[in-house]
Design goal:
By secondary structure, the protein is of the alpha+beta class. The strands form 4 sheets. The chain has a 5-stranded mixed sheet. A two-stranded antiparallel sheet has the order 4-5. The longest helix has 12 residues, at 133-144. The protein is built from 4 helices and 11 strands; from the N terminus they run H-E-E-H-E-E-E-E-E-E-H-E-E-E-H.
Length: 198
């Protein structure tokens, strides 16, 4: 099945859900309305045979221009003293999710993408269609703060529940401590040497 046939099927079954497409890239994709992602997922699985979700990866579009070209964005880092160095302003770019799908066992692949505003990053869950999304969506929530509406257990996956912020956002400010434990950016040997001199 060609990318154009996939687009036609989605547009027929879910009118208005396709917001854009790019078939000239290494991994052709459709841009989908985030509020309709669950409907499109059902068509991709039931009608088109994309029965395996390989990954649902979070994206921070901060620093990308309208043509999708990346630009430098200064990010938070540790200074020579091990303390966090501020990077400046908060991010304004959109967030998103890239869904990489496969027809198993035949191996046909396709990508769906959604893009949501940073101020309200909500996407319909696809976990009822592809159960592996339960884990991928939790990771995208944990690292980017993307909310998956309808997810049955949306909570942090890698970080503790009381962690503040979303570490893979490009405007994330690293904490200097967590629950009283200092978080410094100095290697252990440098910290030990520094402590020995004090």
């Amino acid at each position: 099945m060609t990318p154009e046939q996939i687009r036609q099927t989605i547009e027929e079954k879910c009118p208005g859900a396709v917001l854009g497409a790019d078939f000239e890239v290494a991994e052709p994709y459709l841009q989908i309305d985030a509020a309709r992602m669950d409907e499109v997922a059902r068509v991709m699985n039931d009608e088109l045979g994309f029965n395996r979700l390989l990954i649902a990866a979070g994206i921070d579009f901060e620093g990308y221009d309208e043509a999708g070209k990346g630009k430098h964005r200064e990010i938070s880092k540790y200074g020579e003293d091990g303390k966090v160095v501020s990077f400046g302003s908060e991010g304004t770019g959109d967030l998103g999710v890239s869904y990489h799908l496969e027809v198993f066992p035949d191996g046909g692949r396709f990508v769906l993408k959604v893009r949501v505003p940073r101020s309200d990053p909500r996407v319909m869950t696809v976990s009822a269609v592809w159960p592996t999304a339960l884990w991928h969506e939790r990771e995208a929530y944990d690292m980017y703060g993307i909310e998956f509406t309808g997810h049955p257990d949306l909570r942090r996956l890698l970080l503790p529940e009381d962690w503040e912020g979303w570490p893979l956002r490009k405007d994330y400010v690293m904490p200097t401590e967590w629950n009283g434990v200092p978080l410094e950016g100095l290697p252990l040997a440098v910290r030990e040497k520094k402590e020995g001199q004090e």
